[in-house]
Specification:
single chain, eight-stranded antiparallel sheet, synapse, about 70% helix, WH1/EVH1_dom, alpha+beta, elongated, Homer_EVH1
Length: about 350
């Protein structure tokens, strides 16, 4: 009833394997609630976690405890009283950081509470010893009086308290030695755990390399599948091409049959071709003769044109001479007319 929760989070809980002190054993199948509790009456702090009806963590925090982060989301601490190591796996690095900070805060509070308790014990022990000495002096000074009995009873009580205090100190020394031995064992377990973490890291590296190799193999297989699909497409195209070629072959065979049928009339066509060739030769000879005649006619035309041009030149010169003669005749007529007029 005196305990109160001061911090709560959720995490996967693990405990170190007690036989190997290296491997982690899951204490919960899923993430569970992990809480810090403060006991007002005992002035102590505990970490408590319950999975259903099973208590999987009940760890009283002492100043000698240390919370260690072993990865970004995992942390652990050793409990000498429970003789085990607890591990917590968080869903995020922020949750781990908050839990570690709270652990350090609670650890410091536990240290202060222990120091205050030791101071009270030492003060009580010193007070008891002083009261015992004072009581003895008073008894020697006064052996009578009504206060003698009361002082004696008080002295007896103080002696009993001093004896109990000495016994408690001895008990605490034994418990402290036990805690130191347990702490040493837990430190060894923690070192083994760190070595186990290194081994896990190596195994993780090997697994990651194997994973990369498998991914590369998958990529190669996918590439091979792609090549197979491309080959299938090529085969499909080749099949279509073969079908087209078969159709073309059928068409060519049909054409060949037609050509064979046509070859039967080739002799008749050849005779007709010879007849046409003879006619063509005759026509070519006639054409040659006509071309010769045309060339002769062209020569005659050229000569006729030349003669016409020559005649035109001669006619032009004749006309010029005729014009001169006509002018002379006009001049002669005018001279005759003038002579007639004079006579």
């Amino acid at each position: 009833m005196g305990e109160q929760p001061i911090f709560t989070t959720r995490a996967h809980v693990f405990q170190i394997d007690p036989s190997t002190k290296k491997n982690w054993v899951p204490a919960s199948k899923q993430a569970v609630t992990v809480s810090y509790f403060y006991d007002v009456t005992r002035n102590s702090y505990r970490i408590i976690s319950v999975d259903g009806a099973k208590v999987i963590i009940n760890s009283t925090i002492t100043p000698n405890m240390t919370f260690t982060k072993t990865s970004q989301k995992f942390g652990q601490w050793a409990d000498s009283r429970a003789n085990t190591v607890f591990g917590l796996g968080f869903s995020s690095e922020q949750q781990l950081t908050k839990f570690a900070e709270k652990f350090q805060e609670v650890k410091e509070a536990a240290r202060l509470a222990r120091d205050k308790s030791q101071e009270k014990i030492e003060t009580s022990s010193n007070h008891s010893q002083a009261s015992s000495i004072n009581g003895t002096d008073d008894e020697k000074a006064s052996c009578a009086g009504p206060a003698n009995t009361h002082l004696k009873s008080e002295n007896d009580k103080l002696k009993i308290a001093l004896t109990q205090s000495a016994a408690n100190v001895k008990k605490w020394e034994i418990e402290l030695q036990t805690l130191r031995e347990s702490n040493a064992r837990l430190t060894t377990a923690l070192q083994d755990s760190a070595a186990s973490v290194e081994q896990w890291k190596r195994q993780f590296s090997l697994c990651r390399d194997e994973n990369d190799r498998l991914r590369n193999k998958i990529d190669e297989l996918e590439e091979q599948c792609s090549e197979i699909n491309r080959e299938k497409e090529k085969n499909t195209q080749l099949k279509r091409r073969i079908e087209e070629l078969e159709l073309e072959l059928q068409e060519k065979e049909t054409e060949l049959i037609d050509l064979r049928k046509q070859s039967e009339i080739i002799p008749q066509l050849m005779s007709e071709c010879e007849y046409v060739s003879e006619k063509l030769e005759v026509a070519e000879r006639d054409n040659q003769n006509l071309e010769d005649k045309v060339r002769s006619l062209k020569t005659d035309i050229e000569e006729s044109k030349y003669r016409q041009r020559h005649l035109k030149v001669e006619l032009k010169s004749f006309l010029e001479v005729l014009d001169g003669k006509i002018d002379d005749l006009h001049d002669f007529r005018r001279g005759l007319s003038k002579l007639g007029a004079d006579n």
